[in-house]
């Protein structure tokens, strides 16, 4: 009887281990698996599901996969439309249109002095040089300065090297990660991508126990930049942990007036109208707009009111001007 019990226990343990192994997250991930899901395949439904976008896996540098990158001519192999390429003059004209639209549609939108604009451009270029890929076409970057004395974002028009002068369009107040509160992380600096590896979502508008809508009112866009390492703001030694880095709206009744100060748990918080401006113009939805031609999940996330700007990119650039000599406002 004792031997039978031992045998049953061993079999049970093996069964549990087998189940865990079958559900384990792969140790490596090839983004080409995602792109294959966008290809035409006769005899299959109109789209093939991409691997689980919520799986816990590290980001794979999209631009290193030259043979399959949607930023190269090979996009035609997948039946996807090419990204728009604007001339320098066309890019400046579109940037001017968006600047006017920003002032018109976003209350409390910020415009900066010429000197301050130069600082935004320099911060963006420095961070892109350190951690970003070469810019391959005229496009907009969303640049967020996490400096506690700044807490703002700016839209920066970026060009490939030697093809145009980078320009700052203007922006607005944000809130990034706070310190001193348990489980509040410091928003990491770097270049983060809105790619087809992950699918964002829209806020449900539900309230927590304190009556706060964490992602803003219902329908607000949430951009998902994946798992990232961030400093634990509540620890003196700033030990690092992983957070799901997102950019989203905040509660318009209770928290929006606090924008301009560090307040989040690590994400980038936006005003409602700024969220809508980014969403309705597809500012960092270049890849989503391409993928939407083959996969309904991407089109379902994109705004129904979208007027896709040909300057759309896919990058959130987080900087910290307090680390430079130019940390003071102009």
From TrEMBL:
What CDD domains does this protein's entry cite?
YkuD_like
Keyword list, A-Z: Signal
Q: Which top-rank group of organisms is this from?
A: Bacteria
InterPro entries named in the record: LD_TPept_cat_dom
Keyword Signal listed? The answer is yes
Signal peptide region:
1-24
Q: Which GO terms describe its molecular function?
A: transferase activity
What name has this protein been given in UniProt?
L,D-transpeptidase-like protein
Q: What is the lineage of its organism?
A: Bacteria, Pseudomonadati, Pseudomonadota, Alphaproteobacteria, Acetobacterales
């Amino acid at each position: 009887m004792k031997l039978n019990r031992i045998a049953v226990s061993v079999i049970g343990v093996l069964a549990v281990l087998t189940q865990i192994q079958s559900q384990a997250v792969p140790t490596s991930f090839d983004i080409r698996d995602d792109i294959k899901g966008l290809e035409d395949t006769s005899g299959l439904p109109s789209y093939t599901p991409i691997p689980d976008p919520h799986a816990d896996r590290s980001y794979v540098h999209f631009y290193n996969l030259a043979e399959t990158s949607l930023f190269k001519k090979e996009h035609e192999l997948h039946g996807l439309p090419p990204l728009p390429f604007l001339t320098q003059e066309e890019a400046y004209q579109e940037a001017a249109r968006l600047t006017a639209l920003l002032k018109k549609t976003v209350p409390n939108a910020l415009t900066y002095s010429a000197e301050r604009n130069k600082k935004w451009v320099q911060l963006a270029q420095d961070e892109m040089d350190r951690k970003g890929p070469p810019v391959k076409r005229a496009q907009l970057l969303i640049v967020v300065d996490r400096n506690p004395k700044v807490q703002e974002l700016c839209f920066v028009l970026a060009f490939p090297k030697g093809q145009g002068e980078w320009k700052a369009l203007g922006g607005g107040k944000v809130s990034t990660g706070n310190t001193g509160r348990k489980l509040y992380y410091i928003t990491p600096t770097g270049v983060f991508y809105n790619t087809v590896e992950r699918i964002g979502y829209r806020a449900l508008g539900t309230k927590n126990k304190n009556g706060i809508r964490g992602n803003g009112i219902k329908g607000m866009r949430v951009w998902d930049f994946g798992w990232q390492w961030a400093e634990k703001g509540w620890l003196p030694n700033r030990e690092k942990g992983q957070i799901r880095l997102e950019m989203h709206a905040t509660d318009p009744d209770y928290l929006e007036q606090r924008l301009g100060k560090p307040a989040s748990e690590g994400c980038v918080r936006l005003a409602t109208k700024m969220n809508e401006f980014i969403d309705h113009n597809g500012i960092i939805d270049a890849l989503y707009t391409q993928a939407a031609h083959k996969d309904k999940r991407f089109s379902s996330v994109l705004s129904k009111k979208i007027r896709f700007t040909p300057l759309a990119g896919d990058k959130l650039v987080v900087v910290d001007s307090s680390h430079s000599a130019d940390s003071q406002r102009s």
